[in-house]
Structures are given as C-alpha cells and as structure tokens.
From TrEMBL:
The chain crosses the membrane at residues 6-27, 63-82. It comes from Sphaerisporangium dianthi. This is Uncharacterized protein. Keywords: Membrane, Transmembrane, Transmembrane helix.
Length: 164
C-alpha cells in the first residue's frame, strides 16, 4: 500500500465516523420537519415532533435512527403531496363552477357542496306534494283524471305574497 492509499483509508474512516455521529442529530431534525409537514396545527405538530424524537432516541444504533427518520419524512412528504393535490383540485373545481354557481344564485336555488361536486335544487320543488285524493297516480273515480290535481298526481302549495 502506498502512502496516498493509507491517507485515503484514514480520511474515509474519519468521515464515516463523523457521519455516524451526525446521523442521530440529523434524524431528530428530520422527524421534527416531518411532523410539521404532516400536521397543519402547530401545537399538534410540536407534540408529535416530541413523540417522534423520543421514538428516534429509543432506537438502537445511529444508522437505524437515520433510516427510521427517513421513513417518517418520506411518509410525511407523501401525505403533504396528497394534501396539496386535494387543495389544488378543490380550488380548480371551485373555479370551474363559478358560472353555474352564479346562475344558481340568481335563480335563488339551494347549492349543496359534496366534496368536489355540487348539487343545485330549485326550492319551488319543496312546495310540490303528492295529491291526497288519487295518492299520486292522477286517476280518480272510474279511471277518469283526478279532479283535485287535474290528473298530474301532484299539488302545489300557494306561494306567499312577496313583501314590497
């Protein structure tokens, strides 16, 4: 072995030893960051960071601590990505539906939000009831059209007069 090979071997040994000493510190920093990525509530993130740091400290070996922290940060990054995609799709759906929402608001329809979809309902349908005479089939005595509902099977409540 030449002198340069011995020097490289010694330097690499020292670097590996230093990296192993840095690994627990780096693991603690990574789990704190993973908790803040995973939880939007700051107090919940702080509590979870303390729990994960205690878990990392209980792990045997320096490299196992680092590997566990890398797993936590990977899972947090995936969860953060999923949250970002949900926020983006939700805002995109909101932008796409603004024309329909404006029309529904002008018509005074009720708008129901169900995740990424919306439902629109005309409140006038709430005033329609089943005819009590023909029970909704539209036929009265001797199979003639019902006199109460004129064969529609439904009745409409009267609209209250609008206040001026």
């Amino acid at each position: 072995m030449s002198g340069s090979e011995v020097a490289v071997a010694v330097i690499l040994g020292l670097l590996i030893n230093e990296c192993c000493d840095i690994a627990p510190w780096l693991a603690r920093m990574l789990v704190k960051r993973s908790a803040h990525l995973r939880y939007n509530d700051r107090s919940r993130a702080e509590t979870r960071a303390e729990e994960l740091t205690a878990f990392i400290n209980d792990r045997p070996g320096k490299l196992l601590k680092l590997a566990t922290a890398l797993a936590f940060i990977f899972i947090s990054l995936v969860a953060y990505g999923v949250q970002a995609i949900r926020r983006w799709t939700s805002s995109a759906v909101d932008r796409l539906g603004t024309e329909d929402q404006a029309f529904a608001s002008l018509q005074r329809w009720t708008i129901g939000h169900h995740g990424t979809t919306r439902s629109y309902r005309d409140p006038r349908f709430d005033r329609v009831i089943v005819c009590v005479t023909c029970k909704g089939n539209g036929r009265g005595d001797e199979d003639w059209p019902c006199r109460t509902c004129q064969g529609n099977g439904t009745l409409k409540f009267l609209e209250p007069p609008e206040a001026s």
